[in-house]
């Protein structure tokens, strides 16, 4: 694992989508660190990253309604159990399910295992509603992928919600998710 202040050196193997995240953050003057690591697909793998990064890595879930007409990017603490019925109730919509990979690629420009609020950069039509669990708001810093799961960003949560999300043309919604 290697930690960089800002983005890691650009290489030929770095994807365009990852590079666009760093460029987006840099153009907006967002301060961040990047930890490069082996692919992290699960929250257990992200827990190891979290220790090296020194910031909680949030769980990001890409969800949709049954008709695939409403899409949500849910951000919550990595250790919090998620139940769709509580989010559906909070949002006042029918039961939600996980969106498929084709919608993930189309709307966020990312693949499974790399879901991140940074994918909102690619949602030019504003079809995805970012949703933040209130428990996440107690963190000063947050860790999330730069649209690939071989790196994790550490940035101020205030910058994510106050600079990054608005710069993508989105407004986020805060919810209080129960865990039973």
The total number of structural domains is 1
The number of helices is 5
Average pLDDT for all residues: 89
- In terms of per-residue confidence, which ranges show pLDDT below 50 for 5 or more consecutive residues? none
Number of strands: 9
Second CATH tier, the architecture: Alpha-Beta Complex
**Which structural class best describes the helix and strand composition?**
alpha+beta
CATH class: Alpha Beta
The N- and C-terminal alpha carbons lie at a distance of: 37 Å
Protein name: Prolyl-tRNA synthetase associated domain-containing protein
Pfam family, one: tRNA_edit
Family: Belongs to the PRORSD1 family.
Domain YbaK/aminoacyl-tRNA synthetase-associated: 39-160
Q: Could you give the topology of this structure?
A:
Layout (H helix, E strand, L loop, with lengths): L1 E4 L10 H12 L4 E5 L6 H11 L5 E6 L6 E6 L7 H8 L5 E2 L2 H8 L19 E6 L7 E4 L6 E6 H11 L5 E3 L5
Parallel strand pairs: 4-6, 6-9
Antiparallel strand pairs: 1-2, 2-8, 3-4, 3-5, 7-8
Protein name: Prolyl-tRNA synthetase associated domain-containing protein
InterPro entries: ProX/PRXD1, YbaK/aa-tRNA-synt-asso_dom_sf, YbaK/aa-tRNA-synth-assoc-dom
Family: Belongs to the PRORSD1 family.
What does this 3D model show about the protein?
This protein is of the alpha+beta class and 180 residues long. It has 5 helices and 9 strands; from the N terminus they run βαβαββαβαβββαβ. Strands 5-3-4-6-9 form a 5-stranded mixed sheet. It has a 4-stranded antiparallel sheet with strand order 1-2-8-7. The protein starts with a strand and ends in a 5-residue tail after the last strand. The mean pLDDT is 89.
